[in-house]
Design a protein that fits this description.
266 residues; 0% strand
Amino acid sequence: MKQSIYSFKQLLSGGLLCCAILLAAYIFQAFFPEMYVDAFSSSIHLLMWLTLFVGALLWTFRVKGERIGISEVIDWQFIAAFVLITADQIYIIMPKEIHLDIASVLSGYTIPVLVVVGVMVAGTIKVSIALYQKLADERRQTILQAQKIQQLMDDPPTEQKGVSFLRMLIENRSIAQLSVKDYLLLVEGCHLIDPDLFAWLRRQSCQLTPRDIVLCVLIRMCKTKGEILSIFCISDGTYRTMKSRVRKRLGIGEEDLEIFLQNELK
């Protein structure tokens, strides 16, 4: 069974509070009828009881589990009082003929008017709160999505990092700043463009460092010597040393590394 948003204890206590306010308003009118002799005085006292009644309704129909104290109810009472005072001032400046027609209604039907107007004001406030919370939730979701997208851009998943590093090779950008971990991700990205090289290395059980593998991939990508020097940020002498070390680890002796990798690698 779906749990109700309002508990029985909450509705009972809030309902009793609303009834107590209505009863107090009725007793006040019964014992002090001279205070309801005209429309002006009736509207002033009706405003007082409306403010209390609206606060009681808001406390009664608060969301279950929502912590709402006296201060929150008083805040909404002030808002309700502002709305009602504005309406009362509009009523006051109306022609006297209208006052005479409405005076009997306010005096004779105080409790029904109190109930109807109080429910309308409390309902308007509840709807306004719901709309505000909905807009706040949507704004919060938008902010969270923007933060998540920014986080993905700042710290992309491993697969995306590998592709990002691979793009650096394609665009001839320097990889000198890459860490050992970044080199491993770059090697994983190189699998995408040269699976034959990695298959051959597995068959031959060649033990190459990630830096050596990247050099082989660059050569098989037909990168020029100048582009390779720029990518690694190394000198010509360091480049010759790297090539010599790779030839030794591949077991190809003095054979030209470029020709071997591009033409004879099977």
